[in-house]
Amino acid sequence: MFLTLLLSSSAAHGQVQTTGTPGAADATTTISGKQLPAPQPPNDGKIGPTVADSKTWWPPRVVPGKGAPNVLLIMTDDAGFGVSGTFGGVIPTPALDRVANNGLRYTQFNSTSLCSPTRAALLTGRNHHSVGFGVITELSTGYPGYDSIIGLDNGTIGQILKGNGYATSWFGKNHNTPSFAYSVAGPFDQWPSGMGFDYFYGFQGGETDQYTPYLFQDHTQIFPWRGKPDYNLSTDLADEAIARMKALQAANPGQPFFIYYAPGGTHSPHQPPTEWIEKFKGKFDMGWNEMREQIFANQKRLGVIPTNTQLTPWPDDLPEWESLSADEKKLFARQAEVFAAFAAYTDDEIGRVIQQVEDLGELDNTLIIYICGDNGTSPEGTLLGTPNQYASFNGILDIPVADQLKLYDVWGSRETYPHMAVGWAWAFDTPFKYTKQVASHFGGTRQGMAISWPGHIDDIGGIRTQFHHMIDIMPTIMDAAGVSQPEEINGIPQKPIQGTSMAYTFKKENANAPSARKVQYFEMIANRGIYSEGWYANTVPPHGPWILNASFPPIDEYKWELYYLNDDFSQNNDLAAQNPKKLKEMQALFDQEAKKHNVYPLDNRQFARSMEPRPSTTVGKSEFNYTGVNPGMSDSNAANILGRSYTITAEVTVPDDGGNGMIVTAGGRFGGWGFYILKGVPVFGYNMLGLAQYRWAAKEPLTAGKHTLVYDYVYDGPGIAKGGTGTLKVDGVAVDSHKQPNSIAFIQVMDETFDVGVDTRTEINSKDYILPFDFTGSIDALNIKLGPTQFTPAEQKKIHEAHDKAND
Length: 808
Prior knowledge:
Layout: E1 18-19, E2 28-29, E3 35-36, E4 61-62, E5 70-75, H1 94-101, E6 104-110, H2 115-124, H3 157-163, E7 167-174, E8 199-204, E9 215-217, E10 220-222, H4 233-251, E11 257-262, H5 274-279, H6 287-302, H7 326-359, E12 366-372, H8 389-393, H9 401-405, H10 422-427, H11 442-445, E13 446-452, E14 462-464, E15 468-469, H12 473-481, E16 488-489, E17 492-493, E18 519-524, E19 527-532, E20 535-539, E21 560-564, H13 580-596, E22 623-626, E23 630-633, E24 646-654, E25 661-668, E26 671-678, E27 681-687, E28 693-697, E29 705-715, E30 724-730, E31 733-740, E32 754-756, E33 778-786, H14 793-807
Parallel strand pairs: 2-4, 3-16, 5-11, 5-12, 6-14, 6-15, 7-8, 7-11
Antiparallel strand pairs: 1-2, 6-13, 8-9, 9-10, 12-13, 16-17, 18-19, 19-20, 20-21, 22-33, 23-32, 24-29, 24-33, 25-26, 25-32, 26-27, 27-28, 29-30, 30-31
Domain Sulfatase N-terminal: 69-483
Family: Belongs to the sulfatase family.
GO molecular function, one term: arylsulfatase activity
C-alpha cells in the first residue's frame, strides 16, 4: 500500500479524463489503470452499405493525466554515502548538487548492498527477493527468491508508465536480464523491452569496458566506438539520452517521458578520460584515513549527518595510511585519483542530460531523482588494487606494487581494467562500517539521494531524514504521475507493490514527519539486517568481502548486534548486551519478513553458487558446432574451456595468400584465447590475464584452398589454474607443440564475447594484430569439443566464489 499525493497539476488516481470528440481522430483519454493495456472502449461507429451510410470511429489515444511530469530517474554505480561532494565527499558532483539545491537531499535512503538486486527493487517497487533477485543473476539458483527472473505478476515502473501513455527509455547498465538470456535468440521478456521500455541503449551485465563496451540498442549488439579513438561510454550514453529527448519532443511535444539513466560509473573498470584524471592529480596524497576525517567534518558542516554522529572505527585488518611505503602511497593515491575522476566525469555527463531537460523547456515539469550509487563503494580491488580486475577475479590478488607502478601513467586508460585498494572503498563509505556486498551495515546500503520537482517541493535545498528504501522510488513516481497500481498487466494479476511513496516528504510541514516506512529487512549472502521504527538489528560479517575464496562459519553462528538509530546514526554503539529482549524481538521480526519475501533458504556460500546449472543454451553440452561468421555471443552461451582439455577443429578455405584474420576467439586484451591466421600462418594465442602471452604457430603459410586446422590442449589437472600441453596441427600434421605453464583459473572476461570469423572488441595479442581482424577466407565448419572439468569439489567452490566476485 502506498500513500497517495493528490497534487493540483496531476490527475487523481483512477480518474478518467477525455479530450476531443469520442471516436474522432483527435480523441485522447486517461485510463483507470486497473488493467494494462487498457481495454478498448466500445466502437460507436456505424457500418452501412456505402460510406455515405457509415460513420468512422477511432479508439482514443491513451495519455497521462493533465500535468503529469516527465520523470528522469538517475542511478550511478558502486558509490557509497561519502563519495559525492553533495553528501560531504571530496569529489565534486555539481549535477547532484543542482538537483539537491533545487529540491531535497535524503540522508537515510537505502539499497540492498549489491547491484542487480538493488535495480530489481528500484524497477518493481518490491523487495529484491520478492522478485527473484536475492543475489546477482550470474549466481542465481532455482529458488523463488534467487532465480533472477522478475515474474509477470511483478510489473515494472516501465510497464506502468508506458501503459498510462508515457514514452519510456532506458540508458546504461542492465543487470536485470538473466545472464542465461543474453542470447540474440532471447527470450526477450526479461530484457528492457519486456519490462516496459520502448527504447534501450546500454550494456548487459554488471560492468563493461568503457572504451569497447558490450553494448546493445534494443536487442541488437552495436559497436559505436569503432574508428573513434576518443570514445568513452559515459559520453555516448549522455549523447544518446539527449538525442532521444530531442526526438521525443519533436515527434510529440505533449507526451511526458520517463528516462531511466544508469551509467556504469563508478563500477570497475575505472576508465575516465585523461583530462579528468589530471584534474585530481595530488588530491589524494593525504591518504584514506585523513580523507575519512575530512569527509566526516564536511558531512557535519552540511548537516547530512546529525551533530552527535560518531565516526566508526577503522578496521584492524586494513592498513593505516601512515604504515604504507612510499611506493604504496604513490600507487594507491593514483588509484583514487582515477576513481575520483570517473565519479566526477560521470556526474558531469549526467549534468549534460539534466541541462538538456532545461534546454527543452521541460525542467519545471520534470521530476528528477538522482541516486548516488546502487550500493556502497566496491572493495573488490582487494588490498593492493589491480590494473586488471580479472586477475583479481581469478585469484591473483598480489600483483606487486612495483609492477603496478609501471602502469602509473596509463592507469585508467584502455591499457588497464583497473580497481582501487579496499582502504579507499571503506573511506568513501564514511561515516559507516563496511562496503558493497555487506547488507548488514550501512556502508553497504546507505546511498545519497536528491529529488527535485519545481512547484511541488516547497522546501528548496532541504534535508530529509526519513528512513526509506529503493522499493519506495516506484510508488513515489506513480504518485507524481497520478497513476495507480494495475490489478492486471497483460491479463496477469499483479502482486501488491511493497514500497511506500516518499511524496509526503515534499511538503515543508512534513520535513520532520515520522518515516512512512516502518519496517525494512536487508539480506545478502546471509549478512542480515532488520529496521523497525528507529531500531536496527544486524549480523556481523564473518570477514571483509575483499577476502576472496574465504570460508564461512555456519549461518546460525553469526553474531548479532543491536542499534538505536535515532541516537546512533552511524551504527556505532552496539546495545545487544544491554537489551537482549529487544534483540530477540528484532530477530523474530527478521524471520517474519524473510518468510514473507522469499529470503529463505539463506545461503552463505558467497560466490560458490556460480557453477550451479542454469537454463542456458550450453547446459550439459560438451560439443559446439558453427559455420560462417558468428560474432558477439555472450560468455554464458559459449563453450567454456577453463579447467579442462579441449580440441578446436576448423575446416577453412583460404585465398591465394593463405588467408588472414580471426577464426574463433573468446576474450581480449585482459585475458582469453584466439585461433587465427596471420599472413597465411595458423596461430593459437593464449592471453594469461595480461601477465603472459602463450603462442603456437606454424612454420609455413597455408597454400590456397581447403585446410583442416586443429588446436588440441591436454590439461594437467586435476587442479585450478594448471598448465597443459597444446598442439597445433595443419591437415593432420603437428606443426607446433609445447607446454603452457598455467591457465586462467575461474572466469573468462565476460564483456568480451565469443566470436567466430571476427574479433569484435580487443585483441588477444596486439603484437600480432590490431582490429579489425575479420577472416579473409571462409569457415566451412568449426567444432569445439570439451573434456570433463578437472576441478575437485573443493576447487569448484573456489571457482564459484570468484565468479560471484566478478559479477556483482
